[in-house]
Amino acid sequence: MDCDQVQQQLSLMLYGELSFDEEEAIHSHLASCDACRAALETERELHQIMEAQAADMEPAADLLLANRRQLMQSIASQPQPGREPLWTRIRMAASMIAPAPVWRTAAACGLLVLGFVGGRAYAERPPAQTAMMEGQHPMSARVRQIEADGSGVLRLVVDETRQRTVVGNVDDAAIRRLLISAAVDPADAGLRGETVEILRSAAPSDETREALLHAMLRDANDGVRLRALEGLKPYATQPDVRRALAEVLLRDGNSGVRTQAVDVLTQSRADMNIEIQLVGVFQELMQRESNDYIRMQCQRKLREWKASDEVY
Amino acid sequence: MAGATQILSGTATSLSSARMDEFALIRAAQAGDQSAFEQLVRSYDQSVLRLALNLLRSQEDASDVYQEAFLRVYKNLNAFRFDCSFHTWLYRIVTNLCLDHLRKRKVRREEPSVVATSDGVLDRLDQVTEERADGDPARRMYSDQLRARIQSKMEELTPRERMVFEMRHFQGMRLRAIGDVLGTTEEAAKNCLFRATQKMRSALGDFQ
Questions:
Q1: Which of A34, A46, A251 to mutate to test binding with chain B, by most B CBs within 10 Å of its CB?
Q2: Beta strands of A187-290 (E only): which ranges?
């Protein structure tokens, strides 16, 4: 393999889209070629920049929710898709053969016969083995185990998820527990955002505060983290919340979230023993923060505390 | 062996469990269960919206694609016969809609560089400049210039190249799956990605 061939394949290698042999040939070449190793570094840089861009492009929770609502409204105004219901099709076909009164008489006689025969057949039927209740079809099912005896009868052990409706207000313990589990649903940023929004209005409690802290520090979605941060305002003077806000300031990649964090920290006042811990954080931010507003807020607070705001 | 109980371990069945869940949901939605359809939407709509936002960089266009795609799914769900995965079917609809938007835009020469995020309307490239560990101004300037070059090159890609590049890079989809979605072979998707990455690499030419 020459340098041109290798450099053409580098990107596909980083995507993991080359065969074992192709990748092996490239690695052999790289071991003895400085130029291609440099090209690989450049390629890696391109990938990293694009990945950083991808991480920031998670759709806003509000946008997702608005789209869901609009979709459900549109669907509600749509006719049920698919074919006409069976009964409608039978009626349409029947009306083409004979007028309605004739069919009404025939249908009444038919029902009488059906009731008589059906009743006898039902009485002779063996009892059903299934425990499933009518109208309680599972939303999803997962087969855990299958047992088969020689007679062709199968015994399936099934985990099932069923849907139920739970009604109550946000301060009911059962509702709050469910909300807190929804607030960490990894698959659904819209649901997490909606949940965090509701938890914000809940009466202050340790478990609500923990859920909001978790969302502010760990949620992948910028909008959810921002809402969680706003929900933590009533707890802003508590030491662990202030420490978490400081962590957001130092680590969160979104300048909007960091701006909100610095506002909450600078607009609330805690015990001086706690505030003193923030001095180092604000001084570090003076050196590394790229957002002018956040630096200005840090500088103002440092001066208020008579601490150095020098950038070394 | 006659009469003996044969136990199949859960391991084999667990492999297909996710598919079974989805199968049950689709079947329920096909039978008219609205909540099953809503659950299906929720399983996929975040990635659909992300793909549309990344490709179209317009909140309005991405929302149009979202609405149109899921409405088409709703109207045609009864025709879905499990010939391919639901994900492939849905993404086929979404990518066709996005391609239509991109082609129309190519004609109009209209390419907004901003996108709506939870922070409000932001420029995609400005977002990347938030690499905070990198405090060196010279390094930051280098990165900014690099990103500007990448951005301009992205706009030079054909809609299909851009589609493949976005699905591989931002959605993390394998080329085989991209080929399925676009109704082509893995090899054709690979060639398309290869052309796209060559164009993107040229953005780095002066920086090496």
A1: A46
A2: none
**Residue B44 within a domain:** yes
**Within-domain flag for B172:** no
Distance CA A170, CA A198 (A): 7
pLDDT digits (tens, 9 = 90+) for A247-269: 999 988 888 889 899 999 988 88
In a domain, B134, yes or no: no
Strands B6-8 and A140-148: antiparallel
Q: Do residue B45 and residue A64 have CB atoms under 8 angstroms apart? A: yes
pLDDT tier at A32, thresholds 50, 70, 90: very high
One-letter amino acid of B158: T
Q: Identify whether the C-beta of residue A256 lies closer than 8 Å to the C-beta of residue A226.
A: yes
Nearest CA in chain A to B196: A11
In a domain, B158, yes or no: no
pLDDT number for residue A204: 83
| CA B35 distance to own-chain centroid | 25
Q: Tens of pLDDT along A97-151? A: 455 555 566 656 666 666 555 555 545 544 434 444 344 555 666 777 778 877 8
Which residue in A147, A223, A255 is closest to B6 by CB distance? A147
B83: CATH: 1.10.1740.10
For residue B70, the chain A residue with the least C-alpha distance is A71
Contact B32 A50 (CB under 8 A): no
pTM of the model: 0.54
Q: How many domains does chain B have?
A: 1
From A49, A146, A222, residue closest to B147, measured CB to CB: A49
> What average pLDDT score do residues A221-226 get?
87
Please tell me the distance in Å from A238's CA to the nearest CA on chain B. Answer: 27
Rounded to 5 degrees, what angle do the CA atoms A188, B181, B107 make? 100
Average pLDDT of chain B, as a whole number: 75
pLDDT (average), residues A208-220 = 90
A295 touches A289 (CB < 8 A): yes
Domain ranges of chain A: 3-53, 163-233, 236-312
Residues of A in contact with B177 (CB under 8 A): none
- Backbone CA torsion sign across B42, B43, B48, B50: positive
Inter-chain residue contact A63 with B59, CB threshold 8 Å: yes
If you average pLDDT over residues A2-27, what whole number do you get? 88
Contact across the interface for A288 and B168, Cβ inside 8 Å? no
- Candidates B3, B50, B190; nearest CB to A149: B3
According to DSSP, the β-strands at A154-161 and B120-123 are: unpaired
Q: What is the largest CA-CA distance in chain A?
A: 99
Side-chain-side CA neighbours of A281 within 13 Å: the count stands at: 23
Work out the minimum CA distance from A228 to partner chain B, whole angstroms: 13
Task: Please give the residue range of the domain that contains residue B60.
Answer: 17-112
Q: Which two tokens stand for residue B44?
A: 């996929």
Closest CA to A236 of A209, A276, A215: A209
Neighboring chain A residues of B19 at a CB cutoff of 8 Å: none
